[in-house]
Amino acid sequence: MVRVIVRDVPPFKLLRLDDDEIRYFESLWLIPEGITYNAYLLPTSEGWVLFDTWKVGYEGEFMEALKGVVDPSKIKYLVIHHMEPDHSGTVRALLEANPGIEVLGHPMTKSMLESFYGIKPRFRAVRDGEELRVGEYTMKFIYAPWLHWPETIFTYVKEARALLTCDAFGAYSIPSSTFDDELGEEELERYRFWTRKYMATVIGHYLPFVGNAIKKIESLGLDIRMILPSHGLIWRRPAEIIKYYERWSAGETVSGVKKVVVVYGSMYGFVEAAVKEAIKVLEEEGVLHVTYRFVDNHRDEISDLMGDLINASGIILGTATYEAGIHPLMRFVVNLMIEKIPKNKSVLVITNYGWGGVAGKLLKKELEGAGYKIHSIIEFRAGQLEKNRGAIREAVKNFVRTL
Ligand code: FEO
Questions:
Q1: Which atom, in ligand 1's list, is nearest to the CA of 166?
Q2: CA of 112 to the centre of ligand 1 (A)
Q3: pTM of the predicted model, to two decimals?
Q4: How much is the average pLDDT of 238-248?
Q5: Protein residue with its CA nearest to atom 3 in ligand 1
Q6: Ligand 1, closest atom to CA 202?
Q7: 139-179 pLDDT, tens digit each
Q8: What CA–CA distances, in Å, run from 18 to 2, 35, 320, 398?
Q9: What was the pLDDT predicted at 220?
Q10: Ligand 1 in contact with 148 (CB < 6 A)?
Q11: What residue ranges define each of the domains in the chain, with the CATH number in brackets?
């Protein structure tokens, strides 16, 4: 059952839909933790401004929540930060209730509205850096391309010292409260993981644009006291979430502690036995590590793996050669590493084969081609662990030292 939260976030009002019905975000990423869609209202002496809406399919819930706060006829502007339908999905219902609303957005937004929803509202394209005075507030629009589509913009409301960022600085999950400073450390730590998972899966392909946007905000010298994203928590400690986004998008931990992610697929236990030797060395060396395994009676979640890969220092991959290639689940992982994960990581490969080794060569070519550093590849015929145990141990010891 979805839940609606309406809360004062002075001078805004938050309209939040807690979606625990969704199972796969973008029909791809498993999120048992759920997600929220946040829209914000700003009452001004010249009328109300609405920033974004909710996901398509929740038009009824959105209009009911909105009408509980303000008569739609009092809304003067709708600012669309981003056209993905988890935020623009109830725009048509809103404009049916008040066709006089002027929609503000990136120039690309107009044609997307017409294409997605068959609507041609009153529309004003905003320029990067343009300011618009509404009653006692000044809205400054800032282009934030590829966060997470090319038409994405932020709005800085000067008098509120608030930055509205849509996808950026958001996260998966349904936080127990609205503001970062209302969560206990334990929940915040879980939230940090869901932030990394969200960044890697949703924004991963565009991570360099996170750093660009942060630099742009800093260069504008904005006095930001609050960040209001369209997923998850509102940040009253904006420096915190900016720091997380900055560090993780660069592929680093916030603490600076090195982390190794071990991920392997093993059909009959040969690869697993070899990788377990590597894990033993990580434990002996006291290295922070986390393991994801795909075996015949257990499969860890690739969506969660993404949240751990993004800020790893080193990655140990274990796979068998499979049909003259890489085991298909590991193939998917490697594709995601190439597409969405920062490449500032060293990779150690442990691979087995039955009659001919292919996976090692393929991984070296593809991962090096993508920009990863391949530390070493230990490839041997299934069943030959004893002859190779020493080589694995030495390689992992050396791998850890070079991180
Ligand atoms: Fe939350 Fe890119 O939409």
A1: 1
A2: 15
A3: 0.96
A4: 97
A5: 84
A6: 2
A7: 999 999 999 999 999 999 999 999 999 999 999 999 999 99
A8: 5, 6, 41, 47
A9: 97
A10: yes
A11: 3-249 (3.60.15.10), 260-402 (3.40.50.360)
